[in-house]
Each structure stands twice: as C-alpha cells, then as structure tokens.
Automatic annotation (TrEMBL):
Record's keyword annotation contains Methyltransferase: yes
Subcellular location: Cytoplasm
Protein name: Ribosomal RNA small subunit methyltransferase G
Any GO MF annotation of the entry: rRNA (guanine-N7-)-methyltransferase activity
Gene3D superfamilies named among the record's database cross-references: Vaccinia Virus protein VP39
Gene: rsmG
Region described as Disordered: spans on this chain: 1-32
PANTHER family: S-ADENOSYL-L-METHIONINE-DEPENDENT METHYLTRANSFERASES SUPERFAMILY PROTEIN (PTHR31760:SF0)
Residues reported in the UniProt entry to bind S-adenosyl-L-methionine: G104, L109, A156, E157, R177
EC assignment: 2.1.1.-
C-alpha cells in the first residue's frame, strides 16, 4: 500500500506491465473520444470552461485507457454519455469546497471527472490495483490536477484505518460507482465519511431493491435512511441515479459478544 500525497510520477519504465501487445491496426484512436454533436450542449453545461480538460481526459481514456485494459474497447465511443456526463452530473450533489474521497476509482470514475468539473473540490482517489493507480497518477499529472487530487493506493478499509499507522482518511463526501452492493459499500465508505457527511453512490435502476435489501445493515453501520436522487435532469438522458446515506452516528468496529460485568467493578489480579 502506498500513500501518494502528491500524485507522484510513474516515470519511464515505472508503469507496471499492462496486457500483452496489441495489433496497432486495432488500436483505438483519439477520434473515438470526439464529443458527439448531440451531447455538446450537455457537456458545456456540465463542464463549463473546463470542457477542454474533459476532452483531454476523454482522449486519454479512449486511447491509453483502452490499451492498458482499464476500460473495454467498446466503451470508447460511449465515453461521453456513459462515463463523463453520467459522472459529471453528480457534481450537483456535492457542496462547494467539499473534500471528497472516491472509493474504487478504477480509471478515475467518477473521481477525476468531478475534479475536472469542480476545481473547488479536493479529491482523494482510493484504488487498490497498481495498474490502475499508475494510470491515475499519470492522468492527474498530465491533466494538471495535482493541486486538488491525490491518489491513495489501497483498499477503502485500509484508508479508513489510517495508512501505515498514520491518520485515517476522511472526507465530507465519499463517492463510489460500480464498486459493491450497498451493504458492503456502506461498511467501507461510512467510516471514511465525517459525521454528518455522506456517501453518494451512483447506482442503476435496481436501486430501490438494493435499499430494501440492505437498509437494516446501513442503519446498523450508523447510516441514515438511504435517499435516492436523480442528477442532471433536463441535461442528460437518462439522468444519473444516486443513493445518498448520511453518516448520522459513528459506530465502532464490530465487537465480539460482551462479557458479563463483575459485581464491584474491575477485577483484580490474584
Ligand atoms: C468495476 S470497477 C469500477 C471502477 C470505476 N468506479 C468505474 O465506475 O468505472 C470497481 C473498482 O473498485 C475497486 N475496489 C474493489 N474493492 C475495493 C475496496 N475494498 N476499496 C477500494 N476499491 C476497491 C476495484 O479495484 C475496481 O477498480
């Protein structure tokens, strides 16, 4: 596990080996990441004057991201609607100047997209896999986001415990997309959230079933009632569905069965 507060460089030769060599004729091109004209208005609304930066990230995903096996080749032509716009819409749920931890960032979704759309946020991208964090570090540097984004290599549970015996990571908002079912997500993400802060999980159409199944566990973990919001209404179609859970109570780690207390207070050694 490494804690990279400055999004340090993965220099030439420093990148772990990716998948086996690819036939150059099948390599994705920057063309695949071109913003489709029908999405241009939504992209301008969501990224404003950072649209060029979003386009640079789209290109990186569609080329390097595909070659290094971080996203599937079939995703390249869908990068804007399924990934960038879908994730950027969630920015409306995040308060000004908030600290944000994105758990299971993968290739930077939604964390890097939020950093691009919202320069007022401070983000930590939490991702355990070396190949992915190498890509993230390079992307953060290449896109000029080192002032507001850092990359933590490790699992959410390790970040919450305090990396290398240091301070635990925490943030006002913890985001996650396509990482785990709601019960596991809450157990990983609520400990990373400040009290009164919230988990914002991007979910699909079956979110109501997931909430029904896991609400009791979420409550036990100190979470409030899960609430569903639709983001980007009238901007993207379909809007992005998120479920939010406020960390209402700080619950300690699970303990074993309680021992019966002795009468008369603490026991004395004999
Ligand atoms: C299906 S990918 C989704 C990546 C990205 N969020 C997206 O939407 O494209 C799930 C990611 O979660 C990461 N992950 C799995 N368990 C994790 C944990 N306990 N803590 C942090 N990340 C985790 C995986 O390494 C993987 O990159």
């Amino acid at each position: 596990m490494t804690y990279d507060a400055t999004a340090g460089v993965s220099g030439p030769g420093g990148t772990p080996p990716g998948p086996s060599p690819v036939d150059p004729s099948t390599l994705p091109s920057a063309q695949d990441a071109a913003l489709p004209p029908e999405l241009a208005e939504a992209a301008r609304t969501l990224f404003g004057d950072r649209l060029d930066l979003a386009a640079a990230y789209a290109e990186l995903l569609a080329t390097d991201g595909v070659v290094r096996g971080l996203i599937g080749p079939r995703e390249a032509p869908r990068i804007w609607d399924r990934h960038l716009l879908n994730c950027a819409a969630v920015a409306e749920r995040i308060p000004d100047g908030a600290t944000v931890i994105d758990v299971g960032s993968g290739a930077g979704l939604p964390g890097l997209v939020l950093a691009i759309a919202r320069p007022d946020l401070h983000l930590t991208l939490v991702e355990p896999l070396a190949r992915r964090t190498a890509f993230l570090i390079e992307a953060v540097q290449g896109l000029g986001l080192t002032r507001t984004v850092r990359v933590f290599r490790g699992r959410a549970e390790e970040a919450a415990a305090g990396p290398g015996g240091g301070d635990p990571l925490s943030a006002d908002v913890v985001t996650a997309r396509a990482v785990a079912p709601l019960d596991r997500l809450a157990s990983w993400c609520l400990p990373l959230t400040v009290r009164g802060g919230r988990l914002v999980a991007l979910k699909g159409s079956s979110v109501a079933d997931e909430i029904a199944e896991h609400a009791a566990t979420v409550e036990r973990l100190g979470g409030g009632e899960p609430t569903v919001y639709r983001c980007g209404v009238d901007v993207i179609d379909p809007p992005t569905t998120v479920v939010e859970i406020v960390r209402e109570r700080v619950v300690g780690p699970a303990r074993g069965p309680r021992r019966a207390k002795r009468r008369g207070g603490r026991s004395r050694g004999r």
